[in-house]
Specification:
Blueprint lengths: L9 E4 L2 E4 L1 H6 L10 E5 L2 E4 H18 L8 H23 L7
Antiparallel strand pairs: 1-2, 3-4
Helix pairs in contact: 2-3
Length: about 100
């Protein structure tokens, strides 16, 4: 979706997830920087790709939790946390892998 004025970053309707492309672009996740280092955190270089993966991973986990609990309450937070605990190690593995070679 592309909402040029609203404050909706993402939403879930009928089990389908929707993400607002405007937020993706406004947060700088499409600037082509990809593997350019944006900052150093604890001696590790953090790239634009890293920041985008982390941001949208948690946004997706939040919306997936709405497939189970529609309102924002402790149950919703439980399911969001469960998704994060289950899949965050895989995301970290992907982020720590050497970058793909470009030709």
């Amino acid at each position: 979706m592309y909402d040029t004025e609203g404050q909706t970053i993402a939403f879930n309707r009928g089990g389908s997830l929707f993400f607002n492309w405007r937020f993706y672009t406004s947060l700088g996740h499409d600037e082509g920087e990809g593997l350019a280092v944006k900052r150093t955190d604890g001696g590790r270089q953090v790239t634009a790709r890293d920041e985008g993966l982390i941001y949208w991973f948690f946004t997706m986990a939040h919306e997936l939790a709405h497939n189970i609990i529609s309102i924002h309450d402790s149950k919703h937070e439980y399911y969001m946390s469960s998704f994060c605990e289950r899949f965050l190690p895989t995301l970290i593995t992907v982020m720590m892998a050497p970058p793909p070679k470009t030709t």
